[in-house]
Amino acid sequence: MNFLSQILLSIGCLFIFLAAVGSIKFPDTLTRMAAVSKSSTMGLALICLAGMIEFGFSEASVQLLFSLFFTFISFPMVSYLLGRLRVYSRTSLSQLTHRNDFEKQVQQTQKTNRTSSEFSL
Amino acid sequence: MNPLYALLIISTFLAVIRFIKGPEWADRIMIFDLLTSIIIAAAMIAAIETNEPAILSFVLLLSFLAFTSTLAVVYYLERIRKD
Fold it and tell me: Chain A residues with CB inside 8 Å of B75's CB?
């Protein structure tokens, strides 16, 4: 086993462990979502880099490049959708949150076009 | 055995605790993503240890599947909560 890939694997697994700890310790849905989405994306990127270093230039590293690219697209998109879902389900925020811009925007657009039933972003 | 499996098992336990406790469905969807990334990490460790690149197609498939399933569930929940 390559030394550099072992180090990258260790750091990536440590990032995923920190994501799990953050999902336990944070008080709110939004803060938990921030901790989990960011650090698990970083951990997966480091783990895919470790695999690419280990297997060299072959089919496997091309597959890993695709999965890394897709991870970088998909995880932030899912966290954005979860934040939008929180606005619609109207749960309370914790004391750590200071700014709440998107909810004001949603309320204003719902006031202005109350006649149209569909709210589109 | 690689000692990194222990770290992944501990983080699986923590994630499952939040999955059971979580007050919102958004927490559970997020934990589903975290569990998928833990599975990807374990598959990568197994592929590097046994030096078999055939396992890596599993990684690509899993990252696609997690994204589409999470997107479907979030879209469904949003349609419910809007009304």
Answer: 81
* Residues whose CB is less than 8 angstroms from the CB of residue A3 and which lie 6 or more positions away in sequence, other chains included: none
How high is the ipTM of this complex?
Answer: 0.90
Neighbours of B26 (CB within 10 A): 24
Cβ atoms within 10 Å of A68's Cβ, excluding its own? 21
Residues A66 and A64: their CA atoms lie apart, in Å, by 5
DSSP-derived secondary structure letter, A96: T
Name every chain B residue with its beta carbon within 8 A of the beta carbon of A59: 53
Read off the pLDDT of residues A67-92 as tens digits, 9 standing for 90 and up: 899 888 888 888 888 888 877 776 66
**Side chain identity, residue A20:** A
Tens of pLDDT, residues B7-48: 999 999 999 999 998 787 888 888 998 999 999 999 999 998
B30 vs A36, A47, A51: nearest CB: A36
Residue contacts between A and B (CB atoms, under 8 Å): 147
Contact A55 B74 (CB under 8 A): no
Task: Please tell me the pTM assigned to this model.
Answer: 0.84
**CA end-to-end span of chain A:** 49
- What is the dihedral sign for C-alpha A120, A38, B73, B82? negative
